[in-house]
Amino acid sequence: MKALVCKVCGFVAINGTAPEKCPVCGAPKEAFQEKENALNVAKDKNNLTEAEKKHVPVIKVVEMCGLITGSCKDINVKIGEVEHPMLSNHYIVHIDFYIDKEFISRVILTPEKLNPAAAIHIKPRQGTVTVVALCSVHGAWINEAAL
After folding, report:
1. Domains plus CATH for the chain?
2. pTM (two decimals)
3. What's the pLDDT at 67?
4. What CA–CA distance (Å, rounded) separates 13 from 10?
5. Residue (of 50, 36, 38, 67) closest to 134 by Cα position
6. For 64-110, what is each residue's pLDDT tens digit?
7. Which of 2, 24, 56, 96 is the most exposed place for a label (fewest CB within 10 A)?
8. What's the rounded Cα separation, in Å, for the pair 51 and 142?
9. pLDDT by residue (tens digit) across 40-72?
10. Pick from 13, 7, 3: which is nearest to 96 by CA?
11. Dihedral (C-alpha) 20, 93, 52, 23: value to the nearest 10 degrees?
């Protein structure tokens, strides 16, 4: 899947437009480059390949937040239906979260110390959450879910 990628930090602009400055690292618009195969997506969500089973983000939206009562939804993400490895030479580098194609957060993961998962707490709203996970070996993988 074609997308604009920041050459400095790997942020992917999934809305098709390079921002004036990267929301992750602050690099200028000129640091963005269009890449033909920037994002991997499951070809058939009901029949995943072995590679897709380890890389496609699994998103769970929890309507009642466990920390902030009354004004919060949890977005829990694990990488892969089959847990992705977190080895020094093959791991999930980071997980980026977007709401309605607007970037909201990045979680950076440390190999051998963390699991390939992250959670964020958002204010209640409708729309779509998109998650992009970067594998150190197999590139960026994308998935989305309704809020």
Report:
1. 1-38 (2.20.28.10), 41-146 (2.60.40.730)
2. 0.94
3. 85
4. 10
5. 38
6. 887 887 789 999 999 999 999 999 999 999 999 999 999 999 999 99
7. 2
8. 13
9. 999 999 999 999 999 999 999 998 887 887 789
10. 13
11. -10
* 3-class secondary structure per residue, 70-105: CCCEEEEEEECCCCCCCECCECEEEEEEEECCEEEE
Amino acid at 35: K
Q: What are phi and psi of 58, to 5 degrees?
A: -100, 120
Residue 53 DSSP class? H
Check residue 123 and report its DSSP letter: -
What are 16's two structure tokens? 């098709």
Do 138 and 55 touch, CB atoms closer than 8 A?
A: yes
Rounded Cα distance, 90 and 139, in Å = 11
Query: In which residue are the tokens 């080895």 written?
Result: 87
- Judge whether residue 122 has pLDDT over 90: yes
Mark out the alpha helices in the chain (DSSP H runs).
50-55
The whole-angstrom separation of Cα 82 and Cα 117 is 12
> Of 65, 84, 87, nearest to 74 (Cα)?
65
